[in-house]
């Protein structure tokens, strides 16, 4: 269809039809998605209990300390954080503050600072040394990168590095 200015839109691209998934493939994808969501929500819950203010970088550090090094699509974490903030008993809430990311692949872009609503100052469980121990995990460039000096919020993990 031609407009008054003479512009003709490009033709629509037709994508090849994808073959339908078998039942086994669909169930495998669903199990993998549940496992990813469970690991992300557990990491968010742990960081929320141990830090009053945190960023997505802190959650990635927690996942790396558990041995989940780079096996997740990074976009899943944003949805998981939003779900925790919108849940009926909300455990976290977004703040209006942003801080530069400490992950190398983020190129120092600003990331949102989240506030924990379930923060326990002396939380039982893992100590800071357990949280930082990643001996069974291969080095992850974003976790092992030096932190920027202009952090707005310094978490208990960052105190030793700054």
List the helices and strands and how they pair.
Layout: H1 23-50, E1 53-54, H2 56-65, H3 75-86, E2 92-100, E3 110-116, H4 128-132, H5 141-144
Antiparallel strand pairs: 1-3, 2-3
Helix pairs in contact: 1-2, 1-3
What this model shows, in words?
It is built from 5 helices and 3 strands, in the order αβααββαα. α1 (23-50) crosses α2 and α1 (23-50) packs across α3 (75-86). The model is unreliable at 129-162 (pLDDT under 50). The longest helix has 28 residues, at 23-50. Strands 1-3-2 form a 3-stranded antiparallel β-sheet. It has one domain (26-144). The protein is of the alpha+beta class and 162 residues long.
- Shape assignment: extended
Structural class: alpha+beta
First and last CA, distance: 61 Å
Strand content: 5-15%
User: Describe the biggest sheet?
Assistant: 3 strands, antiparallel
| Fraction of helical residues | 25-40%
Number of helices: 5
Mean pLDDT over the residues: 75
How are the strands ordered across the major sheet? Answer: 1-3-2
H/E order of the elements?
HEHHEEHH
How many domains comprise the coordinates?
1
- Radius of gyration equals 20 Å
Unreliable parts: 129-162
Number of strands: 3
Quick summary of this structure?
This protein is an alpha+beta fold and 162 residues long. The chain has helices spanning 23-50, 56-65, 75-86, 128-132, 141-144, and strands spanning 53-54, 92-100, 110-116.
């Amino acid at each position: 269809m031609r407009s008054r200015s003479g512009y003709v839109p490009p033709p629509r691209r037709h994508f090849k039809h994808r073959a339908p998934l078998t039942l086994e493939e669909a169930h495998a994808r669903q199990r993998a998605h549940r496992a990813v969501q469970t690991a992300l929500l557990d990491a968010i819950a742990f960081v929320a209990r141990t830090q009053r203010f945190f960023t997505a970088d802190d959650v990635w550090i927690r996942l790396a300390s558990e041995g989940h090094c780079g096996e997740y699509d990074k976009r899943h974490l944003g949805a998981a954080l939003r779900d925790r903030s919108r849940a009926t008993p909300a455990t976290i809430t977004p703040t209006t503050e942003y801080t530069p990311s400490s992950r190398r692949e983020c190129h120092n872009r600003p990331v949102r600072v989240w506030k924990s609503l379930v923060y326990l100052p002396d939380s039982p469980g893992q100590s800071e040394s357990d949280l930082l121990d990643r001996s069974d995990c291969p080095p992850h460039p974003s976790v092992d990168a030096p932190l920027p000096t202009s952090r707005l919020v310094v978490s208990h993990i960052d105190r030793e590095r700054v």
